[in-house]
Amino acid sequence: MKSPLIVLSLVFALGAGVLEAQAKPITFSFTAIVASAEPVFPTVHPGDLVIGHYTFESTTPDSDPNPTRGVYFSPGTFDAKIDTLSFSFPLSDIEVLNNYAGSSSDRYTVAAISGNIQLQLYLLAETNPNALTNDNLPLLPPALSSFSTDLFLVYVGSAPNIAANVTTLVPEPATLLLVAMGFAGLAVTASTRRRDR
Question: Is pTM, for the whole model, over 0.85?
Fold first, then answer.
């Protein structure tokens, strides 16, 4: 007969897996360093720290039938703070290009628009066709080291008025905690089974 600990661990691990599989908001946080800023934002200067995050639904469907381009119109938000300047926009879309139209590049773009201002997280791998493995919506942040260009951009008009080099892109702690809880439950189960043999 299985001990209560084994049963509890299995229920715990399965419960975490079920929660992970259901539609739920996922948040990625990022930091960046301002590389350039135009006078339209006089309080922003090169070297300023950018702290931001965006949230999307994990089960948002791909609206583009092209197998090398994914476009995800997910509900969510895109927030960023640079010194005293703050943005909080509804998420517009996430685009994932994996060797799009026969190219040897991959691209991951997150955009949000409010009025005449657009926020964008822009990752481009021009010579690394394996930065992304498909055009699916990434449920873990793409590895920045795989991309030759990694920028947070603020557009007013057609040109970026703030360009910042992204230094980190990580899942929100709550998402990490859920995944860690599932693995912890599995580890306890495996350990208990070895002991009972």
Answer: no
